[in-house]
Every structure is written in C-alpha cells, then in structure tokens.
C-alpha cells in the first residue's frame, strides 16, 4: 500500500515530479489549502478503472441546485485506457476525500500528486 507523495509545485522553474506505481489500495493526503491535481497514467497493456474513496466521507452530500449526491461508492475515475492518462482537480471531488483516502483497483497506474 504505497503512499503517494505530493510534489510542491510552488515557485518558478521546472520541478522533479514524484511518481508512485499503484498496487491496488494506495493512499494520499488531500491538502485543501492548496490546489492539488492528481495525475493518473496507465503504462499497462489494458484499461484500468480506479475508485477514490475517503473513509470519513458521508454517504450522501446535498448540493444546491443539483440535489443529493451519493458518495457511498467513492469517486469512480472511469476507465483509463492503455497508454492514456487522466488528471483530477481534487477540489472538485473534495467531499469524497475525508478521512483516510485510498485509490482502489488502480493496480499498475502511475500516480503523481501535484500541489499548486
């Protein structure tokens, strides 16, 4: 269960990014005081569908103008095809990110957590 280490993207110039190869149940820390982006890259030969889930997230959350959102199953990233990547601005899914945060079913993905 590797922990995904955040890369501080503050300041100017090029940054060396920390990458973590996921093994199926991997953790990271969400810093709501920053503007973090989670980048997931699939270097494998097949599609991977991961889910991000916080152990302390409520089962539902009310959103004005939208209604009640079901958080119980975590945030489904969706299928990431072989050779493809997805980036998630974590503030947009912050309600899923309470408590201990895990990326489940992501074995083989390479993750980078970029804190802006």
Question: Could you characterize the architecture of this molecule?
Answer:
This protein has 116 residues and is an all-beta fold. It is 0% helix and 44% strand. The protein is built from no helices and 11 strands. Strands 1, 2, 4, 9 and 11 form a 5-stranded mixed beta sheet that branches. A 4-stranded antiparallel beta sheet has the order 3-10-5-8, with no helix packed on it. A two-stranded antiparallel ribbon has the order 6-7. Strand 6 and strand 7 form a beta hairpin.
How are the SSEs ordered, and which strands pair?
Elements (H helix, E strand, L loop, with lengths): L5 E3 L11 E2 L3 E4 L7 E6 L6 E7 L5 E4 L3 E4 L4 E6 L4 E5 L11 E4 L5 E6 L1
Parallel strand pairs: 1-11
Antiparallel strand pairs: 2-11, 3-10, 4-9, 4-11, 5-8, 5-10, 6-7
Précis, in short:
The chain contains no helices and eleven strands. It is mostly beta strands. The mean pLDDT is 93.
Summarize the biggest pleated sheet: 5 strands, mixed
- The ordered H/E elements are EEEEEEEEEEE
Helicity range? under 10%
Tell how many strands the DSSP assignment holds.
11
Keywords:
globular, five-stranded mixed β-sheet, four-stranded antiparallel β-sheet, mainly beta, 116 residues
